[in-house]
Design brief:
The complex is a heterotrimer of chains A (93), B (476) and C (481).
Chain A: H1 4-13, H2 20-37, E1 54-56, E2 79-80, E3 83-86
Chain B: E1 7-16, H1 57-69, E2 77-78, E3 81-84, E4 94-97, E5 108-114, E6 119-129, E7 133-136, E8 143-146, E9 153-159, H2 166-182, E10 194-202, E11 208-213, H3 216-235, E12 244-248, E13 253-256, E14 269-270, E15 276-278, H4 281-290, H5 295-304, H6 310-317, H7 320-332, H8 336-353, H9 369-380, H10 386-399, H11 405-411, H12 418-431, H13 433-441, H14 445-456, H15 463-474
Parallel strand pairs in B: 11-12
Antiparallel strand pairs in B: 1-9, 1-10, 2-15, 3-4, 3-14, 5-6, 6-9, 7-8, 10-11, 12-13
Helix pairs in contact in B: 2-3, 5-6, 7-8, 7-9, 9-10, 10-14, 12-14, 12-15, 13-14, 14-15
Chain C: H1 9-17, H2 23-41, E1 44-47, H3 49-64, E2 76-80, H4 107-114, E3 118-123, E4 143-144, E5 147-151, H5 157-164, E6 170-175, H6 181-187, E7 190-193, E8 213-218, H7 221-231, E9 258-262, H8 263-267, H9 271-286, E10 290-294, H10 302-317, H11 337-345, H12 350-363, H13 369-389, E11 395-399, H14 415-420, H15 426-431, E12 435-443, E13 446-453, H16 459-473
Parallel strand pairs in C: 2-3, 2-6, 9-10, 9-11
Antiparallel strand pairs in C: 1-3, 4-5, 6-8, 7-8, 7-12, 11-13, 12-13
Helix pairs in contact in C: 2-3, 5-6, 10-12, 10-13
Classes of the chains: A alpha+beta (93), B alpha+beta (476), C alpha/beta (481).
Amino acid sequence: MVSKDEIKHLGWLARLDLSEEELLKYESQIDRIIRHFDILDGLTLDILESTYLTKSVRNLRIDQAKDFTESVLPKTRNRKNGYLKGPKSDVKQ
Amino acid sequence: MISSYYTKIGLEIHCQLTGLKSKLFCSCHCNYREYTPNENICPTCTGLPGTLPLLNQKAIEKAAMVCIALRCTIPNIILFYRKHYFYLDLPKNFQLTQYNAHGITSIGVDGLLGYGQGEARIRRVQLEEDPGRLSYVTGSSGSLIDYNRAGVPLVEIVTEPDFHDPKDVRLFLNKLASIVEHLGVCDTRLEGAVRCDANISIGDSRRVEIKNVSSFGDVEKALKFEMTRQKAMLNYEMEIRGETRHWDEQRKITKQSRTKEEEQDYRYFYEPDIPSIQIDEDYLKELHSKMPELPDERKERFINYYKLTEHVSKVLIEHKDLADYFEESAKIYFAPKEISNIIVTDLMSYVDDNSKKPGSTIRNIKLSPKQLAEIVRMIEEGIVNRKTAKQILYEAVVSGKLITSTENETNFRKIDDDGLILRSIENVFETESLAVRDAKKNPNVSNYLLGKVMELTKGRVDPRRTLSLINKKLLE
Amino acid sequence: MSRLCHLSIDEVTEGIRNQHFSAEEYVSQILERIAKLDIDIKAFVSVNTDDAIESARRIDSRIRKGEKIGYLAGITVGIKDNISTKGLRTTCASRILADYVPPYDATVIRKLKESDAIVIGKLNLDEFAMGSTTEFSNFGPTRNPWNLDYVTGGSSGGSAAAVAAAECTASLGSDTGGSVRCPASFCSVVGFKPTYGLVSRYGLIAYSNSLEQIGPIARTVSGVIRLMNVISGVDPYDDTTRTVASPYSSQSAGNHLRIALLNNLTVNAQPEVSKCIYSAMDTFSSTGCICEEITLDSLEFALASYYVIAMAEASSNLARYDNIRYGFNLDPEGYEWNSYFTKVRSNFGEEVKRRIIVGTYVLSSGYYGRYYLKAQKVRALLRREFKSLYSNYDVIIAPTMPILPFRIGEKIGDPVKIYYMDIDTVVSNLTGMPAISIPAGFSNGLPIGLQIMSDEFQEQKIFDAALLFERTAKIQVRSPI
């Protein structure tokens, strides 16, 4: 049973501030969804995890520097001397 | 009174792969230091929607070389994982890293590194990306973010808690620094290139983690401080809390972490955009044959081939560019003992003076290996005596110019008169007031002042006499 | 005056190339039609009017000068609004990206432009591609051109509706659990999900990386083939793309295919749907194909596996939306960073939040082995079983959707009901194998789609079967609107 507290904690882990209303609504819905997943419990599989995609180290990107010539972040967005402005962090550097 | 407590110290070291041209997952420049904020970025390293990581082939190569040097086992298949946490310097709010909880998939495990009087086991080596940089302007109600460093490749080296003394940690780190320099993997003297976290537990007490030590030199200091702190607490029968502490670089102390380091659930899972990477046996064999000469091998060669002493060889291999300087000079004029002695006794002091500037090395001295070889040749062929040679040396170190022997004879009328020497010293003291102030605290800086006097007098004063006069004047 | 709007890709490129009509004339008619119809259909999030006319004029000018023009010259392609288009706002139908203008083109967009196709506009979707009805869009639902009170399916609802209503020649959608095939089925057009790794995902705003592919939607199978010939191929910007042999042909025979019908999926379908699929099987038999029914027990684990993996990856992919580098207008000055992040992220819609929470749950340390790891093993199991099936059959058929299209608002209160709509389509995403949905018939004027699947990289077999069905069954695809 996925409780309201657990959902609130999950919300925090995902930085989603859930209102009381949302918590109530999600409580039943999310538990139902997770219970549908329980069908997987009945399975015992000896297969290794599916990572069938594989690449040789020899085929990876060659180490070369290239400038990205377009403007990546809009020049007008929250800037100060080139830095991006952000909210307060906890730690003084 | 607690005298001997069994101390266990483990290390977690991060080295940037400064030897690469591009970042770990994109083609932005790996050396971000010269750029104005947010000029060395692209959609991938800033985590723009729809972008995909492109793993850098050379990063695997360099990390694998580190593993070989540390005698780690390298698995045939490696994977990357996402480590989730939110923070302002993390563009995707997860870090791409490696993880071994579901099978051995990081670049290396189970290694060993000897460091003279001991050895430490290496638990694992892994590749991961550096986050961006956060600044905080005092008084403002916000932070400033620069993504130039985001995505720069790091190799993380984790040891078992096999150290028992901070001195051993220093020896180990010096060895490691030399290895990564010789491999061309990391220039440890670049600002921000290395970071070290340490964990320490005394006796049965809980483990304390020390974070934020940004130079290898400070690690020993931090550990010494922490050990003193903990032993004092134990003496007073106070319990040591298992916690994370931060190293305050300015005040040289460890302090309690201000942020609540709550138990983090990083929700690791394997990065779906990066296939599993196959490292075949042939590739590893090729890598073994491509390995550059490691410091230990080089030291042996210096002893056997150049017939240098163990001590001198050890000093030379401590930094790759020092050893390179020596060999370059010896190749031009084969007098290895003389050359190495001059480097170790005379030139090293010049390097130390300037070591306050980050990244300073013997290359920053204006005397070239060729010039050094020339000076030694003049000594050995009897063209100049040793004393004059030293004068020429100082002159050249300061000015980069080598005054030849013929000029020597005509221009080198020595100034023996103390009065005249003092006049020159006074001149220099007037123009170099900052250095004078420093010299009063740090004796090494007198050499700098000496150099200025030599410059002023075109090397005609006797260096030893002048230096003692300078030191006398400083005491006034 | 929209006589040109219903032309297929082949007819448009041929007509422009041979100067039966100009690209500008064609594009103008398309734009007119959008202006007239889209107030009701609401397929478009934004229309690229000026650029489109500009591009059309350039094509015409090159034709007049006798210069070479691209393979898709003049065709108008609508782009699902989760595919990055440089300089064109890309919102994912979310408030969180309300002002986001990408500084780069997705690889598929670059390829379309290189072949002289024209990006006509961005198309509506369920927010961040999470949904099966397009009702979760921040802009409101798109309406089904066959009956405006009914859903289009999703998440690429706008992409399918626009093509069905001839508001564009073709479109691109994305398919994570059926999001191209579902709306294609509900809107009676052709929608294709390629083998995983065949089409670059660079520029596709990620929902679930290991499951999704960009897929083309057109009114004919041959149109889809032409698009695949342009957008597929290894991309150095996407390390999950793999080598394959193109191009695909619209000419091969397709008779004497060995076809299996997956009856697990017809058994759970509405009777009208089931009847239509069996009738399709008869159509194939009549052309000389060998048809059999099969059952695959492990299919019962597919839906749970799909949602565990999709939601887990979604919770991770959406972590980056903190409005620091891009998003919408909210000054961070004065906020403490956690408060800022949570305030920003409250702008996600309800369904997206739900999936993020469930995804976070299944990845948390206590549950990882029980759900996520288990789901990945189910994938491996299904791949193994399908691969062995494909040693006996060329293609496998099934319904695309277990139900007929329904009224807007009918299922929105119950998320689990909506998840069950994916039951026929998720298996192809889990196995990474290709699948197409083609029009198979109607029930009370509501479209039914036939799904044809094959082994990975065996796209040509699907196309052969689809072309065969198309020319034999001759389902009418011109929408009443």
